[in-house]
Amino acid sequence: MKNVYGYTYRITNQINGKIYIGKKESPVFVKTYFGSGKLIQRAIKKYGLENFTIDVLGYYQTLEALNQAEIDAIAKYQSNFQYGHGYNIASGGDGGDLLRNDPVGKARVRAKMRINNAGMGNPNYGNHTAIAGAKNPMKRPENQAKLRNCNSGVGNGMYGKTGANYGKHMSVAAREKDCRANSGKNNANYGKHMSNNAKRHLSKVFTGRVMSDRAKQRM
After folding, report:
1. pTM confidence score
2. For residue range 139-153, what is the model confidence (pLDDT) as tens digits?
3. Which InterPro entries does this entry report, sorted A to Z (predicted)?
4. Beta-bridge partners for 55
5. Edge-to-edge strands of the sheet including 6-13?
6. H-run or E-run covering 11
């Protein structure tokens, strides 16, 4: 076939019979390519590549035809993992990302991540005394100096650049509109009260600071 864009293929697990349907954007069959799906990759790691076979289902001349052929093949062979005898996660085509196309799956993965990273599953579990206060590596004078040097002068991403609103001044009407839009119940902090701990923290942060004349004028 001339002007081949890609092909669809089927991978079969010779031990349990489960299959995986995939596509490859290549004009020729790549024998060493066994898909990029998470489930099929896990299965290959578990059973060994020697226990899987791969065969081409068809060649296609456009991306649209290739995507549709993959969708049709997944439906035909019922290779979606939800049927219990396949390794495909989604329906195929350009919609192969489970988290992008499945809100329920996304919520499930996020919940699992929260559980895995809580308590002893967190890499910093038990290290609070090792990184607290002055023991925090980012609070060391030498590290702070490195950061200042990296982000100052030409090292700063905004060096020599001006923002989109540079030189512009907000009109009185615009200021009043902005004030109305962010006052009262429209304010994100409406009805909220700062805790005593937060007040004490802010007090420590700003104690001893001297406000510049320019800042006073702006206020």
Report:
1. 0.45
2. 778 877 877 777 777
3. GIY-YIG_endonuc (IPR000305), GIY-YIG_endonuc_sf (IPR035901), NUMOD3 (IPR003611)
4. 10
5. 19-24, 6-13, 52-60
6. strand 6-13
